[in-house]
């Protein structure tokens, strides 16, 4: 295994920038939009977050794999990132309760990565140049061949990806005898969101991304949840229409991340591709309703257009990002419907925002 990790690998960015390193995980080639996460822990939860589908992840923490892989610490059924770029890929791990090493985990799930990269330099480059596609290979080292392969990768802008990560069949989560029922539109839902509902006495039924409002109504839910997920929200007219129908029926609604963007689109507020997006566990957000600051966990490359929100007569702003003033939360006037751009289930991340689940359960009552 030590010999394996020492094989050479290459990272090529869309703008022609090349980084050389060592193979991590499966020997192969992978492509996707490159992005970085500033979190200092929780790498396994990041790997399995469906919102990262189609993206190559750069981790800013210097050590990845150092506490191993625990089978319970997953947010979906398998790894969702397209590939990994890191400084130190630690095969030897220290935690006794871990089930396997990161190397075995990546090999079992066919994930290609590159280590021994100067990730500080890489992150600074991406911050300056913006989001772009990239290719990692530990089997092809010819830059010209990699350029040809990379040129064929589509931009994330305009891609509909949620239907690829959504459940294929409805399933239930929690206690069927719970006081309240919530219909979850699965666009890439994380397990800790479902766990957060169960912890509050809410029984959830999770539906495939393209399920109609009429079909979900047969469950007779007390409210609706629109989940996080990957891709461009503007490329999802099916989900926008479903949100509009939920609002028209005056049902309680809560959206997270992609769900936030879809609630905006359903109220004639546009979305846009961000220069870099927000990905990390340390983003400061102000709740402008109660004048309170919370540190949040975030993962999104799209956002709602600020000007559209500020001039809308349909919604009001509830949360603002204190780093760049982007819109982090809205609620629909005259409706029991609200959403946030960040992740209050915080897996990984701080617990400052979990009150939002309590607010939603209060609406169900």
Automatic annotation (TrEMBL):
Q: Which InterPro entries match?
A: Anth_synth/Amidotransfase (IPR050472), CarbamoylP_synth_ssu (IPR006274), CarbamoylP_synth_ssu_N (IPR002474), CarbP_synth_ssu_N_sf (IPR036480), Class_I_gatase-like (IPR029062), CPSase_GATase1 (IPR035686), GATASE (IPR017926)
Q: Which SUPFAM superfamilies match?
A: Carbamoyl phosphate synthetase, small subunit N-terminal domain (SSF52021), Class I glutamine amidotransferase-like (SSF52317)
Q: Which domain of life is it from?
A: Bacteria
Which residues act catalytically here?
257, 343, 345
Q: What class of enzyme is it?
A: ligase
Q: Any idea which positions bind L-glutamine?
A: 51, 229, 231, 258, 261, 299, 301-302
**Catalytic activity, per the record?**
L-glutamine + H2O = L-glutamate + NH4(+); hydrogencarbonate + L-glutamine + 2 ATP + H2O = carbamoyl phosphate + L-glutamate + 2 ADP + phosphate + 2 H(+)
Pfam families the record matches: CPSase_sm_chain, GATase
Keywords on this record? Answer: Amino-acid biosynthesis, Arginine biosynthesis, ATP-binding, Glutamine amidotransferase, Ligase, Nucleotide-binding, Pyrimidine biosynthesis
Annotated spans, CPSase: 1-180
Q: Which residues form the Carbamoyl-phosphate synthase small subunit N-terminal domain?
A: 7-137
A GO MF annotation of the entry reads: glutaminase activity
The pathway where this protein functions is:
Amino-acid biosynthesis; L-arginine biosynthesis; carbamoyl phosphate from bicarbonate: step 1/1; Pyrimidine metabolism; UMP biosynthesis via de novo pathway; (S)-dihydroorotate from bicarbonate: step 1/3
Q: Which Gene3D superfamilies match?
A: 3.40.50.880, Carbamoyl-phosphate synthase small subunit, N-terminal domain (3.50.30.20)
Annotated EC: 6.3.5.5
What is one Gene Ontology biological process annotated in the Swiss-Prot or TrEMBL record? 'de novo' pyrimidine nucleobase biosynthetic process
Family of the protein in this entry: Belongs to the CarA family.
Main function: Small subunit of the glutamine-dependent carbamoyl phosphate synthetase (CPSase). CPSase catalyzes the formation of carbamoyl phosphate from the ammonia moiety of glutamine, carbonate, and phosphate donated by ATP, constituting the first step of 2 biosynthetic pathways, one leading to arginine and/or urea and the other to pyrimidine nucleotides. The small subunit (glutamine amidotransferase) binds and cleaves glutamine to supply the large subunit with the substrate ammonia.
Q: How does it assemble?
A: Composed of two chains; the small (or glutamine) chain promotes the hydrolysis of glutamine to ammonia, which is used by the large (or ammonia) chain to synthesize carbamoyl phosphate. Tetramer of heterodimers (alpha,beta)4.
Q: Which HAMAP family match?
A: CPSase_S_chain
Protein name listed in UniProt:
Carbamoyl phosphate synthase small chain
Name the species this protein comes from.
Daejeonella lutea
